[in-house]
Amino acid sequence: MFVMIADVKLNEGAEKDFKNWFSESNKVLSKFPGFVSRKFLKSTDGSYRIVVEHESKETFIQMHNSPEHEKLHPQGHSYMSEPPQRKTYNVAAE
Fold first, then answer.
1. Quick check: 49 and 6 in contact, CB under 8 A?
2. φ, ψ for residue 89 (rounded to 5)?
3. Amino acid 82: pLDDT
4. What is the spatial distance between Cα 84 and Cα 68, in angstroms, rounded to a whole number?
5. Where do the domains of the chain lie, and which CATH numbers do they carry?
6. Of all residues in the chain, what percent are helix, strand and coil, respectively (each to 5)?
7. What per-residue confidence (pLDDT) applies to 30?
8. N or C, which terminus of the chain has less Cβ within 10 Å?
9. Which of 32, 25, 31 is nearest to 72 (CA)?
10. CA dihedral 85, 45, 52, 68 (to 10 degrees)
11. Which residues of the chain have pLDDT under 50?
């Protein structure tokens, strides 16, 4: 399994709109082959993180490079005060 984790910083007052956008974008992105899950997390300290799970790096890249993702991506970034900080992982054990 392939996992992408992104730390995000939202603009002041943008959390509700971002959550709505995130839920709507999940309806589109979850239809891609290899999709496992995509979650928006909020820590007790108020920081935010996105976790995306795919069956493989290849299916993640196919989704990430799709016209659908290209259409959704700019709107998601419009709620952020800076670009997300991403890291990718392969699941080593379960």
1. yes
2. -145, 150
3. 96
4. 19
5. 2-90 (3.30.70.100)
6. 35, 35, 25
7. 96
8. C
9. 25
10. -70
11. none
**Does the predicted TM-score (pTM) go above 0.90?**
yes
Q: Could you tell me the two tokens for 93? A: 């054990």
Q: What are phi and psi of 81, to 5 degrees?
A: -85, -15
The confidence score (pLDDT) of residue 21 equals 97
**Sheet arrangement for strand 80-90:** 35-42, 48-54, 2-10, 80-90
Residues sharing a CB contact under 8 Å with residue 79, sequence separation 6 or more, in sequence order: 10, 11, 14, 17, 18, 21
Please, what's the b/e burial string for 69-92 (b: 16 or more CB within 10 A of its CB; e: otherwise)? beebeeebeebbeeebeeeeeeee
Distance, in Å, from the CA atom of 36 to the CA atom of 53, rounded to the nearest integer, reads 5
The pLDDT, as a whole number, for residue 23 is 97
Residue type, 76: G
